[in-house]
Amino acid sequence: MAEEPNHSGNRSGGAEWRGFAQLAAIVILIAVALLFARAPGRIERGAASSLSPESARPTVRVMHPAPTEQALTIELTGAVNLEERVRVASEVVGRIAWVSPAFSNGGSIAANEPFIRIDPAEFELQVEAAEMAVREAEARVWVERAAAEEDLRAFERENPGAEPSESVRRLPWIAEAEARLMRAQTDLKLAQLRLERTNISLPYDGRVAASDVEVGELVGPADVVDGPSSRLGMVYRTQALQVAAPIEPRDLEYLDPVIGRAARVVGEMATWEARVARVSSVVAPKTRLASVFLKFAEDTHPDSLPAPGTFVEVDIAGPVYEDVYVLPESVLQERDSVWVVRDGLLSAFAPTTVGRTPAGWVVQAFDAGEGVVVGLLPGAREGLAVEATDAAPSN
Q: Which sequence spans correspond to the domains of the chain?
């Protein structure tokens, strides 16, 4: 029987060779690693040795605030409305004979000048009839008094020295005639009053908010004429214009006393002077805001005033704060704080804010140390040593 070739020797020899190769590769890698680890680093020791604690301090720009006085202006948004308005109606029944061109929406009417005239013919006849009734009553009184004088003379002739009675002197008949005269005179005054009321006017200057009347229309009081014929239009006094502006309770507290304070009302096309007339007695349930009501200056021309419903901006000047700083917004840091330099170290401080104006951030005066840092400082922290330099004054 033939024997199979023996390959076990060859396999063991190949395995040993591979093991030696792996070991050699590991040794080479270790040697390379040691070589790099021992290589000198590029460190410029001369530059490092030139640094000192003083030169390592960052430089900050600071300002030196000075105590001053400053008043704040409370800025509000409001709307123009009417404190009151007048519904125009006729007090007599009749047909419109004339309507002034000024009696139209947006028009202006002068005090005591008629702007609607009702046909007066019927009322003029009533005045004439009342005048004749007065003359008739006056004649009746004259007749009674003349009769009384004649009766009195006859009584004295027939009864010398006797006291005449009231009937002899016709006192009851004279009193009745005088009462009829007074009634006729009253009827005449009423007729004249009705005639005057055919000319509709108002005792003050006003502006027309609405007009709903035409020549020939039958008009009269609401209890006589039903429907819209009893409503001729709507008029308001210029003094009834007011501005209502919501306000924060804290702003009210600052403005106290608020009534009478001067204000400026700014619209899209004009600016008006005004004063605070009153303050609401309750706050709005949803917004929790109160309201101030302002009246325009009395010398303002009526035609220049804004129309009701106009939105306006309101600036109310407040009292003066004493001993405050007015800081630029550039000093403001996180959470309304500032960096103050004290003994060359940064110190965070949160001043008490009074308000903000176009001039800057108004705060109560505080110890500003060596200055208040202007601008942002990267890496700033409490106690950081800094070098302070005065900031250039702002224009």
A: 59-66+323-390, 75-82+238-320, 90-118+200-231, 120-197
What pTM was computed for the model?
0.59
Region for residue 350 given its phi and psi (left: phi exceeds 0; alpha: psi -120 to 50; beta: otherwise)? beta
In whole angstroms, give the CA distance from residue 355 to residue 287: 22
Sequential pLDDT tens for the chain (395 residues): 344 444 444 444 555 656 666 666 776 777 666 655 554 444 343 333 343 445 578 999 999 999 999 888 899 999 999 988 899 999 999 999 999 999 998 888 999 999 999 999 999 999 999 999 999 999 999 999 999 999 998 988 899 888 998 888 889 999 999 999 999 999 999 999 999 999 999 998 889 999 988 999 999 887 776 666 678 999 998 889 999 999 999 889 889 889 999 999 999 889 999 999 999 988 888 889 999 999 999 888 888 889 899 999 999 988 888 999 999 999 999 889 999 999 999 999 999 988 888 888 999 999 999 999 999 888 889 999 999 999 877 55
d(CA 102, CA 110) in angstroms, rounded, equals: 9
Which CATH architecture group holds 75-82+238-320? Beta Barrel (2.40)
